[in-house]
Structures are given as C-alpha cells and as structure tokens.
Amino acid sequence: MGDFGPDSGGRIKGLTIIKPIVYGNIARYFGKKREEDGHTHQWTVYVKSFRNEDLSNYVKKVHFKLHESYPNQNRVVTKPPYEVTETGWGEFEVVIKIYFNDSNERPVTLYHLLKLFQSETDIMLGKKSLVCEFYDELMFQDPTQMMHQLLTNVRPIMMGTYRHENDFEEKREKTVNNILNAKNKIRYEIAELNERLKQSKETILKYKNEILKMEECDDVLTQPLQCPTTSLPSSTAVSLPSATSSASTVSLNVSVDNGATTPTTVTTATTSEVPTSLSISSSATTSINTLSI
User: Fold this and answer.
1) Measured distance between the N- and C-terminal CA atoms of the chain, rounded to whole angstroms
2) Fewest CB atoms within 10 Å of the CB: 67, 77, 129, 223?
C-alpha cells in the first residue's frame, strides 16, 4: 500500500461506503451449575462480516469489554475471528469497540446484551444453543483515500463461510413488507380522515349560514311596527248627523299611533237634540276609523 501521508490522502467528499456486519452471542447451557465456580453456561460473543468478507483488511482490532467480575475484563482481538469465549452464570452488557487500520477513521462502538436464558425447552436442557445476534452497518461517509482503498479491496474469508443463525435476508423481506403494508394502511387512514374533515367543515358552514339567517329574522322582529296614521290637531271638531231623540249615545272609534283601535264613547245629555258636532282634544296623533250613532 502506498504512502498516503498523515491525512491518509485526504477525504473523498460525497462518497459513502457501507459494510454490513453481524454481532451478538451464542450460548449453551451446561445442564447444571458447575461445582468449581457456579457457572451455568458457555458463551461466545462475536463480530463478523455479513457478506463473508475478511474484516481484517480494514479493521485493526476489536475491543470487547466484559463484566468487571471477569479477570482481564478488557479483551482485544487483532485478527479474525473477532470473538471472545467464556463461561458464566449471568447476563450483562458487552461493549464492543471496532478500531480501523486508518487511524483517521474514528472507532465504532456497539453495545450488546449477552443473552443466556430463554424459555425454549431444548435450550433450557442444553440440547440446543441459544443465539442472539443482530444486523448492523458500518457507514463510512467521506472516507479517506487510504480507507477507500482498504474498503474496496476486501478479500473473502479463507477459513470458510460464516453461517448466520438468523436468516437476515428473510427478515429483511418481511420487514420491508411490513413497512409497505403499514404505509398503505396509514395512507388509507389519512384519506379517510381527510374526507371526514371535509364533511365536518361542510356541516359547520351549513350551521353557520342557518345561524346567520335566524339572526336576521330576529333583527326584523325586534324592529318597531310602523303603521300609517292620520294626524289630527289637538282640538278637532267632528260633525255628527242631526237626530230627534232627547238623549243619544255617540260611539266613536279612535285609532292611536300604535295601531290599536280604542273605542271611545261620548254621551250627550241634551234633551232637545243630539249635537251636530263633537270636539276632540288630544295630545297624541289620532286617526278616526269609524263613527257611528
């Protein structure tokens, strides 16, 4: 490999390289507690390539940090397979730190909960190993010239093909299908909610218009009623027909300015004849509707 200098040849802007990996652990139950130390399981924690590549081409070392109860809890592996095998009786978090051959690339840290126990009968009896592993990706964004060369010239693993206990391709297909189904379901629910929202807005507008119409009717009903009137002066003479009776009753209907008809009766006590005229005094506007004798 050529000399790239202290900056590893500089970074390649806009380039992203992804390397998929698998990490986790496999554990096997002894069948009983070991007498000398009380341990119940043997386990192996590991990091490996998903595509059966030789990680050593760009990985310098992998640091596994175990529980503090283990002597030498910091285990460093500098070549494949990148794994640590131990025995124990309890689960704990393992810190996995991956260092690269290009020191200008920052290390990547993974966290894995060491899994020992599961309810499956065969695993509990020690007839079957427990596997707990995960898929992840190392993403190199704007890698250096040196790292780019290391990442693009990887070799296949010479010790045989890694076998993944989990079928990640099948999981990937199921996950993608689940995501697509969820997106379609959400899209349908959004369309349904939009339609309901549209109907609600139309209903609100309809009721608003009805309320406005009712308010306009209320305004009309609360206005004073205007009726035509015939104004009379404060003192008005009304001519009456002559009569021969000694006493007469004159009935006069007078309509005041509010539109109501108020019957007014005027009686004369003249013994000789009914007066031929009648004086009406009023301080209000008055109209005569009928006059009867």
Assistant:
1) 138
2) 223
Interval 44-72: pLDDT, tens: 999 999 988 999 999 999 999 999 999 99
Q: By C-alpha distance, which of 181, 154, 189, 140 is closest to 13? A: 140
Instruction: Write out the DSSP string of 152-218.
Output: HS--B-TT-----SS-HHHHHHHHHHHHHHHHHHHHHHHHHHHHHHHHHHHHHHHHHHHHHHHHHHH
Do residues 25 and 132 touch, judged by C-beta distance below 8 A? yes
Q: How far apart, in whole angstroms, are the C-alpha atoms of residue 136 and residue 119?
A: 26
Locate 265 and state its tokens. Answer: 């009766």
**Rounded distance between C-alpha atoms, residue 24 and residue 261, angstroms:** 104
- Distance between CA atoms of residues 92 and 75, nearest Å: 15
219, 135, 142, 210: which is closest to 170 by C-alpha?
135
Helix ranges, the chain (H): 121-124, 145-152, 168-222
How far is residue 16 CA from its own chain's centroid? 33
**60-115 pLDDT, tens per residue?**
999 999 999 999 999 999 999 999 999 999 999 999 999 999 999 999 999 999 99
- The tokens for 89 are 């009786």
Cβ 248 vs Cβ 274: under 8 Å = yes
